[in-house]
Amino acid sequence: MHISEFQEMMRRLYFHRDNERGVKGTHEWLVEEVEELREALEEEDKEAIEKEFADVIAWLASLANITGINLEKAALEKYNNKCPKCRCSPCQCTF
Amino acid sequence: MHISEFQEMMRRLYFHRDNERGVKGTHEWLVEEVEELREALEEEDKEAIEKEFADVIAWLASLANITGINLEKAALEKYNNKCPKCRCSPCQCTF
Prior knowledge:
The structure is a homodimer of 95-residue chains. With 95 residues, chain A is mostly helical.
């Protein structure tokens, strides 16, 4: 599924709730899901890890929906087969 | 671009660095990018917001690469045209 199709699915499912909650509250949920992902990774619980990865990308798409950002377009404008810093593939940054 | 194709692009560009940094360090970068997204949203800087959304999904894909998770598969197993909690589209959860 395209990134933009996933974002659109999140819009159909959740836009009414996401928009009501607002940007600040939705970002806070994203932060919470990233923390839950850390916990699942620490516990090395594969099933929980997969679910938390799903939740992080879902909340990121929700946040993109209520801020009017096309996540796929934004991702490919910055990352398009080259590292945006060194312009190489694979990245050869020396920092 | 499919979510899995984006993840594969991140693998080509960054796996050598991501794998060396490890799971904990890569998760810390993800947290940092989510914070930078918050700052860009607060400043209402559209260009910066787009770049930070790109960075968050890029670091999420990097983290998925080094933990052996297929981000697209994980996302669609949990979110597949229905809310995973109420099984409705759109979501009708009452919490």
